[in-house]
Every structure is written in C-alpha cells, then in structure tokens.
Design brief:
Layout (H helix, E strand, L loop, with lengths): L1 H9 L15 H6 L8 E2 L5 E2 L2 H11 L11 H22 L8 H25 L10 H16 L1 H5 L4 H11 L2 H7 L2
Antiparallel strand pairs: 1-2
The structure holds glutathione.
The site of glutathione (GSH) has 7 residues, from loops.
C-alpha cells in the first residue's frame, strides 16, 4: 500500500499487477525469489523488492509534494520503529494462530506493545498535524497502512482508545484521494 501511495503521488506511469500470495506466479519468483510483494520491475530489468526502496525510487524520479525531500532523521527513526517493532507486534496481534499464540497473549503482549508505539504517534500528532510535519509526507504514507491494519483488528476497541489525534489522522488517510485511488482495483 505504501509503495502504491508513493507511485501515485509521483505521477509516474506504471502497470499494477495483483498477485495471489497463495499461488505466487512463477514470474514474480523469478524477479524476486523471496516471494514478497511489492515488487517493482523496471523496464531496464532492474527489480526493487522492498516497499521503502520503491517509495524512495519513485519519489527520486518525481516528488511533486516534497515527500522525500521532507523526510528527516526523526521520520526515518519513526519508520524504523514501525518496521522493526510495530509490524512484529501487529502481525502477532492480527494472526495469533499463525504464530501459535493464544488469543490472550496476542492481546496482553502484542496489542499492548503496539499500543505503546501508537501512543508515540498520537503524541507527535499533538504537536504537528502530520508525522512528516506541516503536510502529509513520506513518514505518514510509510506508517499509515500499518496503523490501519491494527485498527481493523478490533475497530470498536481502537476507536475507544485515548488517542484522538491518531484517530483523526487515520480517518484523514482513509478518506483521502490517494487512499481511494490506490484501493481501486
Ligand atoms: N519488507 C517487505 C515486506 C513485504 C511483505 O511482507 N509483504 C507481504 C504482504 S504485505 C508478503 O508478500 N508476504 C508473503 C507471503 O505472504 O507469502 C516490504 O516492505 O517490502
């Protein structure tokens, strides 16, 4: 989702191919044997198979809203915390069975650890309108899809938590033109 957001905002022209992760196409595995998505295949036979690298590449080509130029060390640290810590707990909170966890552990450990990170985001949003600063940018786009996933595990519980800025920021993302466009199949 974040790769699509960056490709969308860059305005570059590209073809999007949906793949089934349960039945990965041979060509996908040929391009990127690790078998994860997204994979960006460039005409000159270059392959970029990490979403953040796709974002950086797309915005390096064209960055009309200054997403990449506005990415600072704080933003990079937030993204690292998201990718290293938050995603780990999100996966276990969302799919306890896949990780051989009881539902209780998923909540008491993994939801709780995710909550700690989410409060740091809410705190940031109390001081500035976006994680990237005064306008939506790279850090917001890199993190919002994961917060959305977390919110969808128990929507009522999520909406009742004391993180008003985070809730407003997430609603803004989900009602944005960018989100609406990239979700269209
Ligand atoms: N670090 C990678 C992670 C990508 C990733 O885990 N993608 C998931 C889908 S969102 C995937 O392809 N999983 C492979 C599978 O389920 O077999 C990135 O951000 O590009």
């Amino acid at each position: 989702m974040r790769a699509r957001l960056a490709l969308w905002v860059s305005g570059l022209s590209y073809e999007q191919r949906e793949v089934s992760l349960k039945n990965k196409p041979a060509h996908l595995l040929e391009l990127s044997p690790k078998g994860t998505v997204p994979v960006l295949w460039l005409l000159e036979h270059t392959v970029i198979d990490e979403s953040l690298d796709i974002m950086r590449w797309a915005l390096g080509q064209s960055d009309p809203q200054g997403w990449l130029t506005g990415l600072d060390a704080k933003g990079q640290a937030r993204i690292a915390l998201n990718d290293d810590t938050f995603k780990f707990h999100l996966d276990r909170y969302k799919y306890p069975v896949r990780y051989d966890l009881t539902a209780e552990l998923a909540l008491s450990v993994h939801r709780e650890q995710g909550v700690i990170v989410l409060h740091t985001l809410d705190e940031c949003l109390r001081h500035q309108p976006y994680l990237s600063g005064q306008s939506w940018g790279f850090t917001d786009a890199a993190i919002a899809p994961f917060v959305r996933q977390f919110a969808h595990v128990e929507p009522e519980w999520f909406a009742s938590q004391p993180w008003p800025k985070l809730l407003a920021w997430l609603t803004m993302f989900k009602t944005s033109e960018a989100f609406e466009t990239i979700m269209r199949r």
